[in-house]
């Protein structure tokens, strides 16, 4: 099988003597740079890990690709996304990381930070355009499948969900494998998602599962 292609605007480049995923933009988290290119650290980013592991995210990149990103924190990953995609709506409910997120948005006119709760999509429905191409979710909260299902309303019929599931956010005492199976089942309800690919992100993030899915 051939390697899935990287989105336009994401390249493998030699930075600091290592082959690294990279995007073009202002640095955000002290990552090494080479000219206008900034390294994308997969140990700090679940989406970066999914790309490093060769998962077929369906991301294309370019000005026309719209993204809704849930759990933006201080902007580590979503800043890379806004470097290569079009309008990128970044939802984060904690005020402290959101301050850094605003800073990351300063040099990125296509990045729109929203200080909102991803469990209450109706609170940002008036801002986020409908039919977004990609819904990316990395929220450290219980009920991660529910959040993905509730935000499906924003996703185009042929769009993609890129979900990072953190087992410990659901239950620290249980086996991650069992939790991942439950999340997959919860997503796969009739009006939910069809899972296209899922892979443990263990090499970069302990007890996390990466999922690529599309609306049913
Ligand atoms: C693992 S961090 C995200 C890291 C980020 N995605 C990155 O790669 O740069 C999880 C984030 O989810 C946020 N979060 C948790 N529950 C949330 C909710 N209901 N709505 C919005 N953000 C939430 C937390 O405040 C935290 O910043």
UniProtKB/TrEMBL annotation:
Function (record text): Involved in pre-rRNA and tRNA processing. Utilizes the methyl donor S-adenosyl-L-methionine to catalyze the site-specific 2'-hydroxyl methylation of ribose moieties in rRNA and tRNA. Site specificity is provided by a guide RNA that base pairs with the substrate. Methylation occurs at a characteristic distance from the sequence involved in base pairing with the guide RNA.
NCBIfam families per UniProt: PRK04266.1-2, PRK04266.1-4
Binding site for S-adenosyl-L-methionine: 76-77, 92-93, 117-118, 138-141
GO annotation terms (biological process): box C/D sno(s)RNA 3'-end processing; tRNA processing
Entry similarity comment: Belongs to the methyltransferase superfamily. Fibrillarin family.
Protein name: Fibrillarin-like rRNA/tRNA 2'-O-methyltransferase
InterPro entries given in the database record: Fibrillarin (IPR000692), Fibrillarin_CS (IPR020813), SAM-dependent_MTases_sf (IPR029063)
Keywords: Methyltransferase, RNA-binding, rRNA processing, Transferase, tRNA processing
UniProt biased composition (Basic and acidic residues): 9-23
Gene: flpA
GO molecular function, one term: RNA binding
Broad enzyme group: transferase
Gene3D superfamilies (alphabetical): Vaccinia Virus protein VP39
